[in-house]
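Exercise 7. Given the encoded structure of a 353-residue chain, write a plausible sequence.
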């Protein structure tokens, strides 16, 4: 599989590009593009970032057959940037593609294409604290046909967006609420896939709770509205006095790469970690007993986001917090130290480019 490169004539990067970056608004000079022919992936091309021409009948627009990934490249020094846990991202893309009936892009195209693209656009990886180049692979149905069936042909792209710190004005604990009206995913559905449609259905409920001053919804299980699943675009962790717990993957929860890193690094710190079904009522009780010390979210974009308040049907878990709690701070440092190459990676997670 070849990756053909059509370089830009002149970079769009300027001295002020990284000055006040909003998330996902700026894009680097190049993108990777590949398509299937008769369902078989063809050679990829890296070409100047630019608009696509699509038919109004594009299958993905009508039926949402689209999956994506989200990862980052980190500035280490003048000659090195780091990619993180590429094999895990590829494995998840594979699982997402299977569920949404999309032919899996070849591993070589994904890994080598990503490395080549990031190497070419390395000047777009900001050399600034807590900045990175966010990388968005996406695969979608591209038949120009509106029959309700899986497409025959597909498109795969990787685009890159320089991003600043998730909390530009300092880390602020988030106020969250559960919902017993809406659910994100149901066992048997598509919750474990990074599918575009999962997001489409979550925006309206999230907008509703924002009116009441909540940043996000804590999604509960669809059947009993009792078991904690996820928060917006993050997995969730509860730090109890004697252990760290996170919801176990039941099929309706996305397997976050940051989640995997938190579990592994906490265990290395000597903390007992367990994946279990977590009843929100048990967590409210643990908070009242003084057993619950911290609650935080984990995801590529925010890395570790502290939660200040969790509201559930008139009851509250509320922490008196300025930024991240002590454990969240420690785990955030452990992850970012690896990503930015400040410590030696003994896990095989880091890929220098
Ligand atoms: C991407 C995503 C996460 C976080 O996964 P990471 O691999 O850690 O970025 C969590 N939940 C949902 C719904 C997601 O889409």
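Solution.
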């Amino acid at each position: 599989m070849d990756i053909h490169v059509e370089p830009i004539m002149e970079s769009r990067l300027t001295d002020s590009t990284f000055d006040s970056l909003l998330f996902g608004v700026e894009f680097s000079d190049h993108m990777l593009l590949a398509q299937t022919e008769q369902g078989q992936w063809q050679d990829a091309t890296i070409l100047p970032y630019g608009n696509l021409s699509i038919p109004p009948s594009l299958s993905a627009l009508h039926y949402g057959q689209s999956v994506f990934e989200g990862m980052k490249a980190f500035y280490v020094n003048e000659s090195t940037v780091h990619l993180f846990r590429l094999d895990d991202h590829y494995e998840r893309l594979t699982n997402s593609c299977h569920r949404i009936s999309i032919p899996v892009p070849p591993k070589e195209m994904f890994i080598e294409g990503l490395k080549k693209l990031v190497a070419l656009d390395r000047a777009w990886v900001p050399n600034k604290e807590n900045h990175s180049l966010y990388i968005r692979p996406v695969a979608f149905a591209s038949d120009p046909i509106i029959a309700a069936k899986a497409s025959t042909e597909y498109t795969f792209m990787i685009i890159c967006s320089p991003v600043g710190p998730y909390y530009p004005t300092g880390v602020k604990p988030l106020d969250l609420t559960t919902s017993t009206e809406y659910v994100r995913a149901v066992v048997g559905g598509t919750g474990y896939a990074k599918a575009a449609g999962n997001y489409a259905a979550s925006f309206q409920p999230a907008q509703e709770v924002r009116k009441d001053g909540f940043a996000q919804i804590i999604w509960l299980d669809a059947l009993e509205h009792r078991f904690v699943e996820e928060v917006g675009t993050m997995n969730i962790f509860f730090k109890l006095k004697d252990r760290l717990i996170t919801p176990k993957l039941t099929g309706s929860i996305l397997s976050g790469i940051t989640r995997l890193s938190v579990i592994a690094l906490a265990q290395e710190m000597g903390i007992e970690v367990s994946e279990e079904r977590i009843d929100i009522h048990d967590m409210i009780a643990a908070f009242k007993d003084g057993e619950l010390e911290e609650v935080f979210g984990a995801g590529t974009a925010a890395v570790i986001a502290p939660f200040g308040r969790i509201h559930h049907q008139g009851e509250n878990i509320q922490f008196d917090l300025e930024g991240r709690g002590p454990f969240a701070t420690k785990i955030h440092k452990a992850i970012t130290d690896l990503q930015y190459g400040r410590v030696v990676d003994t896990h095989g997670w880091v890929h220098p480019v």
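Remark. The two ends are 20 Å apart (CA to CA). Students should compare their own answers with the one above.
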